[in-house]
Amino acid sequence: MKKYLLLSIVLFFISATFAQQHDSQTYVVYFRDKGENMKDRNDPSFYLSAKAVERRLRQKISFDQSDLPVNQMYVQKIAESGAKIRTLSRWFNLAVVEATKNDKAAFSTFPFIASVQVLAQGNVISGCAKPFSVPEKIEPHVGKMHKKSDSDIYDYGLAYNQIYQINGQFLHNQGYSGNGMTIAVIDAGFNSADIMPCFDSLRANNQILGTRDFVLPGNNVYGLDMNAHGTSVLSTMGAYENGQMVGTAPKADYWLLRSEDAGSEKIIEEYYWVSAAEYADSIGADLINSSLGYTTFNDSTTNHTYADMDGNTTIVTKGADKAAEKGILVVNSAGNSGGGGWWYIGAPADGDSVFSIGAVDADGIRAGFSSVGPTSDGRIKPTVAAQGQGTAVYSPWGLGNSSGTSFSSPITCGMTACFWQSQPSLNNMQVIEAIKATASQANQPDSLLGWGIPNYQAAFTSLSVHSQAVDKALIAYPNPVDDKLTLGFPVSIHGNYSIDIVNLQGKVVFSQTGIAVSLLSLQLDNLGNFLSGIYLVKVVTESTTYSARIVKI
Fold it and tell me: What whole-number percentage of the chain has pLDDT above 90?
C-alpha cells in the first residue's frame, strides 16, 4: 500500500511539474523607470570600470540613464511572484522572465511595470548540445606551412595567407599587436581554451581577463560539454605558436562571454547577447567580436523576416548599435546563408553602426556561403570581407582549416584592434571609415563584399601624419585633485594653447587660453567648486593635443 501511495505522490509531482512547464511562457518585462533611489546616482564608477570611463571620455560620450542598472527592488518583486529571472538589460530597462500565467498575473499589476510582452512559449533552457552550422566543420590541415618572411616579427605558419591578404603583417612589424586593447568575444562556448597550448601566451601574460556565462550564470565556459565554436574564433585572434599559427591580435586582452545556447535556437539568445554586450561595456572592452547571427528559430512564430533586417527592429541589432553608441567597435559575422534559402545577412550584422564581415577564399574571391546585402532599407552590407574559406583555426582537437564568416569576423576584429592601437585618437566609427576608405572596393562598394578586403597598411599610411600630432599623454597631479591641479607636458609647448575640462555629460566646465614660451608645466587653481566626479582635461596646442583623466574629490 505504501509503495502505491509513494508512486501516486511521485506521479502527482511529475504531472504538476509537467503542467507548470507546459503552462510557462517567456516574457519581456519593461520597467517604467530606474527607480526614485537611482535618480541621483550619477557617479559612473558605481557601474563602469575605469577603462570603460576612459573609453567614453576619449570619445566624448556622455553618461546617461541607460548606464544605470535595472532597479534590483523591481527585479526582486518579480522573482517573489514566482517568475524565474533569465536575464536583464540596463540599456533597455527590461527583464526577461519565465513564468506561468498565474505568476504573470501576479506581477503584471506592479506599478513600476510599463508593459509585459510574450517572447516565446515554454522553457527557454536547453539541455543538449549541437554542432555549429555547416560550413564551419574543422578539417585537419594537410599540406605545407608558409615560411616566415625575413622582415616579419612573427612566423605565421598556417595563418600566413589570412594575415597577408589584409596586409596585417605591416601593423605587427610596426609594433602593433593589440597591446592594451580589450576584445570581448561573445560566442557559444570556449571548450578547452584554458588548457590548449596555442593560448599559453595569453595565459602566461594574463591576457584572458575573465569569463562569464549569460545562458547559465556561473557555468564553466571552458567545460568539455561546452561548444568549441568560441575556441576556434578566439584562435584566429589570440593564438600564438610561431611556425604553426599566429592570430591577428596576439597581444590583446580578452573577455570570453557565452551568450549562445548551442543546444537550441531561441530568440531569448538575442537578449543574452545584449546582456553580454552590456557587460563588455561595463568592463571596458574596446571591441566586441560576435560570430553569431539571428534569422530563424526553433519556434517559427518568433522568426525574423528580411524586412526585419533594417537596422532598427531586432533587439540584438538595437543592442549592437547601442554598444557602438557607448564607444565599442562591434565586429559581427555577416552570416553563412549566401548560398541559398535566406541569402541575406542576419541580425545584428544589419546594424548601421556594426562592422559586418563577409568571407572570401585564399585568393580573395567571395565564398559562396557568405551572406549578402543590402539591408531591407537599402544600405550596403557586408561592410568588408576577409578570409573565411579555408581559414586556419585551432580547435580542442588541434590545428586545422575551417570555413565560415565566423572566422573572417575575428580575423578582422583582431587586426582592427591593432589598427586602433596605432590610431588612439580615432573613435570607433572613424576607425571603421578609415578601413573602408582604403579597402579593395572602396571606389565601387557592392552588396557582395561591401567595400572589399581591408588593407591595414594603406589605412595606417593614410592616417599616419595625423596620428603623430594628437592624443599625447598629459601628466596631471595630484590626482585625485581637490583644488589646485598641475599639468605637466612631455616636451615644452610653444605658441597658442587652450585648456578645456569636460565632465561625463560632455559639458565644458572650465576653459582657458594662453600663449606658451617653452612651457613644461602650468597650474590651474580654484577647482574646489567642481562637483565630485571624473573629468577629461584636454590641452590643445598648435600642433598637438594632450589629454588626461582626473578625479575630483
Answer: 68
Say how far apart CA 261 and CA 411 lie, in whole Å.
Answer: 23
pTM for the structure as a whole: 0.83
| Residue 285, phi then psi, degrees to nearest 5 | -65, 140
- C-alpha 421/C-alpha 418 separation (Å) is 5
Position 259 scores a pLDDT of 98
CA 181 remoteness from chain centre: 12
Angstrom distance (rounded) from CA 115 to CA 497: 53
| Whole-angstrom distance, CA of residue 309 vs CA of residue 332 | 14
Torsion, CA 527, CA 532, CA 533, CA 535, rounded to 10 = -10
Which residues belong to CATH 3.40.50.200 in the chain?
144-467
144-467: what CATH class? alpha beta
CB of 349 within 8 A of CB of 371?
A: yes
Phi, psi (deg, nearest 5) at residue 267: -65, -20
**H or E element at residue 120:** strand 113-121
Span(s) in the chain for CATH 3.30.70.80: 20-121
**Among candidates 158, 153, 157, 183, which has minimal Cα distance to 169?**
153
Q: How far apart are CA 396 and CA 190, in angstroms?
A: 9
The topology under which CATH files domain 20-121 is Alpha-Beta Plaits (3.30.70)
Q: Taking Cα atoms as reference points, which of 388, 472, 338, 393 lies closest to residue 165? A: 388
**Pick among 2.60.40.420, 3.40.640.10, 3.40.50.2000, 2.60.40.3080: CATH of 472-552:** 2.60.40.3080
pLDDT at 19 over 90: no
pLDDT tens digits, one per residue of 62-114: 888 899 999 999 999 999 999 999 999 999 999 999 999 999 999 999 999 99
Is the pLDDT assigned to residue 294 strictly greater than 60? yes
> Please, is 537 exposed, middle or buried when counting C-beta atoms within 10 Å of its C-beta (0-12, 13-18, 19+)?
buried
The whole-number pLDDT of residue 14 equals 30
pLDDT digits (tens, 9 = 90+) for 39-76: 555 667 778 998 998 898 888 888 888 999 999 999 99
Cβ 446 vs Cβ 382: under 8 Å? no
Q: List, in order, residues 6 or more apart from 85 with CB less than 8 Å away.
A: 75, 78, 79, 95, 96, 97
- 115 close to 27: Cβ distance less than 8 angstroms: no
Tens of pLDDT, residues 331-389: 999 999 998 888 999 999 999 999 999 999 999 999 999 999 999 999 999 999 999 99
393: β partners: 400
Report how far residue 313's alpha carbon sits from residue 517's, in angstroms, rounded to the nearest whole number: 56
